Amino acid sequence: MHIGLKLRDLARKKNISVSEIAAKLGRSKANIHHTFSGKQDISVSKLEEISIILGVSPAYFWTDHRPGSYGNNEDYITMAKSVVNDNLQAYESMQKDMIAMRKEIDLLEKLLEEKQERIEMYKREISELREDD
């Protein structure tokens, strides 16, 4: 079932009108109606806002609440854990890359310093040679 339809059904169960939700969100009644009818996709931020008004977690809409079902948030939790794990791995990888880049920058700065010292040495030698002429 489309999340918009689940939103509509829950709003009806809680006796909260489309007009009331629209007013609390600062949106048009038509906008909310299109979301509830499934004609318009819903953003995560909009789902969170409506969930607060309806008094449920956004995870509520990924579970099966029909009589006789044992819907729970396991799929949502598994997905969230996977996202967190992926983000952690990406963060750790970026940290390693940054450490490697810092080492490379340090090495390049040292090489640059050595080259600048060599240039200064050559300048002095040239100056001394000119003075000898």
| CATH-level-2 architecture of the largest domain | Orthogonal Bundle
Tell me about the largest β-sheet: none
Say what the CATH topology of the largest domain is: 434 Repressor (Amino-terminal Domain)
Query: Would you identify the CATH H-level superfamily of the largest domain?
Result: lambda repressor-like DNA-binding domains
What global shape is seen?
rod-shaped
Count of the separate structural domains: 2
The tally of helices reads 5
Distance between the termini: 94 Å
What are the defining features of this structure?
133 residues; mainly alpha; 434 Repressor (Amino-terminal Domain); 2 domains; 5 helices; rod-shaped
Verbal overview:
- The protein is mostly helical.
- It folds into 2 domains: 3-72, lambda repressor-like DNA-binding domains (434 Repressor (Amino-terminal Domain), Orthogonal Bundle), CATH 1.10.260; 73-133.
- Helix content is 74%, strand content 0%.
- Helix 1 crosses helix 3 (29-37) and helix 2 crosses helix 3 (29-37).
- The radius of gyration is 32 Å and the shape is rod-shaped.
- The mean pLDDT is 84.
